[in-house]
Write a structure and sequence with these properties.
Structural class: alpha+beta
Largest sheet: 4 strands, antiparallel
Radius of gyration: 51 Å
Order of helices and strands: HHEEEEEEEH
Shape: flat
Strand content: 25-35%
Distance between the termini: 185 Å
Number of strands: 7
Strand order of the largest sheet: 3-4-5-6
Length: 216
Amino acid sequence: MKRPVLALGLTALAGVAAWQGALALQNEQSTRPSRDEAPPAAPTRPTPAPAAPATTPQAAAAAGATTPMAERVATLGVLNKRNGLWRDVQLKPGQGVRLGDLIVRLRACEATAPWEPEKLTGAFVQADVRGRDERWRRIFSGWLYKETPSLNVVEHPIYDVWPKNCTMRHPDMGPDTVSVATPAAEGASERSSAKKSPAPKPQSDPTPSAPSSNDT
């Protein structure tokens, strides 16, 4: 009777050991990473934005050589022939001003460059006048020139408008101007490069010698 009982106990112990081994193997497989699973990606640093290209002095000078139209300032003279009163108004292109029954608008202004042979100061002006019927009518639209007032005139019995100045900048030199060395500078460089000859030594007067014999 003791042998069957002992065999049953050994069988039970073997089953428990096998069950614990299977459980340990299952846990090990669950914690081990799978071959198909991709490894976690390494953290990447943010890519800095590309820096804006530096503007060269030549490009900056070319861009700002001439004042843009929107930044120019024109001075216009306005005269009321009926009462003899006049005033100056300063406008930028696109601006306008109302003086009683007169509205003056500036569309553009231009002044010739310093190297131009003919000096002209012009402004594109539009003038509207309100009549007795309370309606506004355009009496002028075109270019006016300071140096040649007879070229284009505001023909109206009461109001007169003329340009006096156009504030704007020009480049220092024309588009076809090239800087060269002046003749004086070239002559100075040639003189400095030439070898200088030594100055002649001054000749001293011979010292008179004493006579060989004296008269007694």
